Amino acid sequence: MIEQLQLLGNQTRGSFAKLGRGTRFLLQTLSGIGSVIPRPRLLLNQLYSVGVLSFLIITISGLFVGMVLSLQGYYTLSDFGAEASLGLMVATSLVRELGPVVSALLFAGRAGSALTAEIGLMKATEQLSGMEMMAVDPIQRIIAPRFLAGLIAMPLLAGLFSAIGILGGQLVGSGLLGVDDGAYWAQMQAKIDFQDDIVNGIIKSITFGFVTTWIALFEGYDATPTAEGVSRATTRTVVNSAFSVLGLDFILTALMFGDD
Amino acid sequence: MDYFLPRMDTFVSNQNSLVSVRNLSFSRGPKVIFDNVSLDFERGKITAIMGPSGTGKTTLLKLIGGQLPPAQGTIVVDGENVHQLPRKQLFQLRKRIGMLFQSGALLTDMNVYDNVAFPLREHTRLPETMIRSLVLMKLQAVGLRGVKDFMPNELSGGMARRVALARAIALDPMMILYDEPFTGQDPISMGVLVHLIKSLNSALGLTSIIVSHDVHETSAIADYIYVLADGKIIGQGTPEAIRQSSSAWIQQFMNGTADGPVHFHYPAKDYFDDLLLSGKRY
Ligand SMILES: Nc1ncnc2c1ncn2[C@@H]1O[C@H](COP(=O)(O)OP(=O)(O)OP(=O)(O)O)[C@@H](O)[C@H]1O
Ligand SMILES: [Mg+2]
Predict the structure, then answer these.
(1) 3-state secondary structure of A66
(2) Residues of A in contact with B166 (CB under 8 A)
(3) Which of A122, A129, A135 lies nearest to residue B91, judging by beta carbons?
(4) How far apart are CA B53 and CA B262, in angstroms?
(5) DSSP codes joined into one string, A165-196
(6) Pocket lining for ligand 1, CB < 6 angstroms
(7) What ipTM score was computed for the predicted complex, to two decimals?
(8) Rounded mean pLDDT of B190-207?
(9) pLDDT band at A168; cut points 50, 70, 90
(10) Which ligand is nearest to the CA of B29?
(11) Which among A116, A184, A241, B50 could bridge A220 via Cys, Cβ 3.0 to 4.6 Å?
(12) What is the DSSP string of A114-175?
């Protein structure tokens, strides 16, 4: 019993220590962002590997999620004779929830894990300390551009996801189920609110981008510099990102849509 | 807390030394790596650090470069106390120090050329044509101009280390720290390296600290040698003096015999007892 309590105590202390290191890391990263601006090449390279390389998985997933939403929505709505609202339903779900959340989960799996593995391996092969000895700060040179890239890419990917999803929904809705094409778009246009839906969706995806990229970079930077250490860190990135995204989504949704 | 309050003897050092280490203590967990050691590295000279594997030679270089904080003692490089420098000044100091890592530590996402150009591009505003000539010059010096377009993973261990050396001298530093420069080199490139290190020293007047196990090569070029073991300096002097030393420790090390006062084995419990314990299978 005592032993278990001790173990619990040690683990708690361990996680607080890690939270402390993570916060310090984040502050250093944020202050390193200034040094990226005069060197856009660094950022562009990272935007490519973090953002562009995630296009495919985001597009395909968005398409299918939109199609399934449309299918399920149709069965429910048609019971009430409200098929005309299908477009609205698909768009609301995507823009408010599924776009930001699912694309963040995919982003963590696709780009986050790659970032952790890359940074962790650079650490294990002494590339980071080599850089430090060459008087180059790895936080500025390696971490900050990746962080900024994640921050920029995430909302764009979420937007792409929602847009493709809406198209997928329309494909199934009017192509397969015979919902009126005009109604699909018209209801969406009339009822989707810029502030309530779109801006809030963007705020969500920026938050998720911030958190998942931070987790991914920190896990790599903090990894035990061995093969096993890097593999564990990569797993932790995906798991912790998923928890954080889902938890934050609940909080943000409660804050944003609480009063209507 | 006397790490912040150095004792009086701390700054009493040889006038001519570029690096002086005073009363240095450092531990890794329970293992004491350095126990109150003091060393001096003279300007313009080649000083070698020798000692059995695991005594802390690499650790010493990292302490000198300011990558690890000492538990006690001070390290002064070119008049500046490395561990009390603010980060900016520390980086300023590091620009004047080249370090050759034991593993090479090349950046794996760029080719050999860009690796050597890296410190130049980061720290100077030289035009690309100038950088190109400098890079080719440095690569030529280590005999590897022919691999400038290779990626680091296409190099052998010995080649990677020579590229790393080219990178370490790219900014024409005042001092180079070599961690095992000779490991993995064939006799020819070994000869070239020995010559290169020697001539960098005499032609450019830089100071070199070489960590090495290669007793023969090292004593051929070093001006002064420290022999470390068990957290202490067990011998120091010119190569000649070291060779003549009557100490059993040093004789054992220089001649490479397993039996003697220096332990070949990392401390462990009794061998026989260990063998009798039943193993665990995974
Ligand atoms: N990151 C670390 N964590 C804990 N202990 C370490 C770490 N790095 C090194 N050590 C320990 O410090 C001691 C000195 O290591 P160091 O790498 O300085 O040895 P070395 O003299 O360079 O050996 P070699 O000649 O084999 O390179 C070793 O006993 C090692 O076990
Ligand atoms: Mg070593």
Answers:
(1) helix
(2) none
(3) A135
(4) 11
(5) HHHHHHIIIIIIS---HHHHHHHHHHH--III
(6) B 28, 31, 33, 53-59, 102
(7) 0.81
(8) 85
(9) very high
(10) 1
(11) A116
(12) HHHHHHHHHHHTTHHHHHHHTT--HIIIIIHHHHHHHHHHHHHHHHHHHHHHHHHHHIIIII
- Residue linked to tokens 């903090």: A222
Instruction: Report d(CA B143, CA B161) in Å as an integer.
Output: 12
Q: Hey, what are B185's tokens?
A: 């080199």
On whether any CB of chain B is under 8 Å from the CB of A132, the answer is yes
The HSE-up count of residue A155 (CA atoms within 13 Å, CB side) is: 13
Cα–Cα distances in angstroms (integers) from residue A148 to residues A103, A153, A157, A241, A250, in the given order: 18, 9, 14, 17, 25
> What is the C-alpha to C-alpha distance for residues A58 and A161, in angstroms, rounded to an integer?
6
Total count of residues recorded for chain A: 260
Atom 16 of ligand 1: nearest residue by CA position: B56
- Dist. CA B51 → ligand 1 center (Å): 12
Q: Which of B11, B5, B135, B142 is nearest to B72 (CA)?
A: B5
- Please list every residue in chain B whose beta carbon sits closer than 8 Å to the beta carbon of residue A127: 105-108
Provide the percentage of residues in chain A whose pLDDT is more than 90: 70
Chain B interface with A: residues with Cβ < 8 Å: 62, 65, 67, 91-92, 94-95, 97, 99, 101, 103, 105-108, 118-119, 122-123, 167
User: Domain-by-domain residue ranges, chain A?
Assistant: 40-255
DSSP-assigned letter for residue A225: S
Q: Could you identify the atom of ligand 1 that is nearest to the CA of residue B102?
A: 27
Minimum mean pLDDT range among A136-140, A250-254, B4-8: B4-8
Burial A20-40 (b: 16+ CB within 10 A, else e): eebeebbeebeebbeebeeee
**Ligand 1 atom 7: residue of nearest CA:** B28
Count Cβ–Cβ pairs < 8 Å, chain A vs chain B.
50
